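re: ur question from the group chat, yeah i did fold both. here u go
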Amino acid sequence: MGGAIAIRVAAHIEAKEDADTMKRALAAVFVIDVVEGSAMDALPFMEQIVHNRPRQFPDLKSVIRFGIQSGQVRDKRSARVSMPEQVVETADKVTGLKKYVWRTDLLASKAYWEGWFKGLTQAFLDLKVKKMLLLAGADRMDKALTVAQMQGKFGMTVVDDCGHVIQEDQP
């Protein structure tokens, strides 16, 4: 989702006539593994994916193990850093025992999922600044991105042997 936000903010900055200082500050947009086609194709399955995650964990080791076993993060060192930050410690109301629950209720944002990604390819291609796309597989490219990349309209790097969290799996 961060890449979608970066693209939208960059487009907003470029559209502002009175934002000359911001325009000079925006040198390029670097997007990590978000492609409209792949994101839109995945949306029908996202609610079930979220529902299939454990609702709570007894300890942080379980959180880290889930991150690796689910494929969310492939690098064990990285999982030890990022997975604990995705949960918060709380107490079970009935037993009083410590447990860990997800920090963010992903389903609460479901109404916005489509809007985050719809039109993203064109918004990215329309940016006037330099653009770079870092992908976890060339199969994530949609037709418009493939054509634009072949025309040299943006730079692209494909990182193999990693999942969606490229910055963690292949730092």
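okk and heres the other one u asked abt
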Amino acid sequence: MTIEEKVVHIQEVAMTEARSEGNQILETHQKALDSLYVKHTTEARKQMTTKINAETVRARQQLNQTTAKAQVELKRALGKRQIFLKDKLFVEVRTLLQDYMQTDAYCALLRTHITNAAKFANKEPLTIYLNPSDVARKAELEAAIGLKLTISREDFIGGIRATIPSRNILIDHSFLGMLDTQYDHFQFLGGANID
């Protein structure tokens, strides 16, 4: 072998070895890059899943808050509407009571309440009060029942009130008392198309 052949041979061996080392370095580098890529994509997916879960929870919380707020507003509006309708209804009831107080049935009701109060008193002294609007009926009722009646200074719409001082008893058959009780306990029990 000549020197030139030796040089060419050394060059070929060196080149083959260099290529082999270069390929090995490239493979090692490629494996490292692939491993880094897998780690990076796995971490990115975990972060994305965590972020999606956090955003989902936040969106649900916002939806729940908005829903709760809307329900409170709806209940408040419903409550206001029910109070308005309740007041309107009781104004109508008062008007009907005023009409009823002009009838003979109302006079009969007064006689019944007065008689029952006298029976309850069992001959003990009692004071029976008529509403100021019933002043015109006082004489007729006193004659029919045989008891002295007193016109109240307080307007209790209609009906009677009686006191038995010896027993500290108040008998209240006043329309005002009944209306107040009914108003306090009145509730709308649902239904549709309430105007």
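fwiw on the second one: The chain has two domains: 1-100, 103-185. The mean pLDDT is 92. idk if thats what u expected
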